[in-house]
Amino acid sequence: MPWVLSAAFKVIKSWLPEKAVKKIKFVSKKDLKDWVPKDQALTCWGGEDDYTFSFVPEFSVKDEITISTNNRKVRFDDGTQMSEVGSTISTTGEDGALLSVSPEGLIKFSRDTDNECISNLVLQNISSSPVSFKVKTTSPEKFRVRPGYGCLSSGGKVVVTVCLLPAYRASNVAKDKFLILSTTVESIDLSNEELTNLWKNTSTKKGNQIHLRCAPLNDVAKNGSVVHTVPEVEPTITKLTATIRDMKESQKELYGSVKTLLYVQISLIVLLLAAILYLITSQNNHAPSLVEKSNSP
After folding, report:
1. Residue limits of the MSP domain (predicted)?
2. Whole-model pTM above 0.85?
């Protein structure tokens, strides 16, 4: 390669790790065959491949895209899924629902005397047979639910307390959801082991599922409605922005270094040409004087 590019590559080579330097190979037509098979090398490289590039324009097809929210799924910790239709959540399900929940559709948190964020749900058996229930959440690491499962006789009620653990902020629970499952049982006198085995082997119908979403503590107004606020910027976004800023500054410094190196190379070339011209001119000036001295007696 030209000596100017060779000098520039030496600088670039000093920036690269050793593994990257070993992978760089300079080839010519003579030793190209050692790296590229002859049948895959272009004819201009001395190979046999007569490939010629031809640009083929892309035909854009405008497809109508319909965004539907009817098929969105929320996956719970044990693999079950909760369907979501639009932005509304049904608490009564289909005909034949076994439980009713109060408040409906929304878990509203409030602070107790110990400054903990809690919410109380009242479950009632509205069927004519005993019912077993189980409460699930998309974020089991955030919440403590007591009781998480149990049995209710016909018309019976139970208060389920949902407590947000102190390690998590109440303003960041808007994306969390709860699912209350219910199924009929023969008796309410079931042990914890029997209830655990029951729910392992039971698949509930959609009519026996109650979907609830959480309202952040700061978003619950006095009348119980939810005020939608802009979510806080996550710390990861801040770190990513800082990283991009550092990369831009490093890129500017690298650009300045390359620009300075280019100026130095141009200056050296000019000095080299000036030195060559000076030597040629001085030799031409000394040549006549030497001829005169040789002709003098």
Report:
1. 98-217
2. no
